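Morning. Coffee machine broken again, so started the prediction first thing and wrote up yesterday's gels while waiting. Chain of 115 residues, entered below exactly as on the submission form.
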Amino acid sequence: MNAFRRNVLKGAAGASAVAVAVAAGLLKPTQAMAAWNVPVEVASSIAGITSIAILAEKNALPLVGNFGMSGGAEGFISTRIKMGQTSLIRAVVSAGGKTFTTAKEVKVTIGGCGG
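Came back before lunch.
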């Protein structure tokens, strides 16, 4: 079997699997077009940071990531997250036995044409 034919068959199988999921109601078009590459950065100048956690409040699994910091590490995290709808993104910084938090709303525009 040549490589081109194999790639065409794989693509057709993948497309049919998505079509079946949509028809069965397991996958909704709004979910398929959700923002999947939202860049998020957390920077802190607090001394003695031990961890930084990022939460997306309206996600099915709100904890996006929990990053442990060792002694002397710079308080900076940069990552991309998947969001299905506009939500507050919360950063939680632990330092010196205390917890600090801040939040910012991130808007998700379905299809990239809205506010």
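Helices lie at 3-23, 29-32. Going to sketch it on the whiteboard this afternoon.
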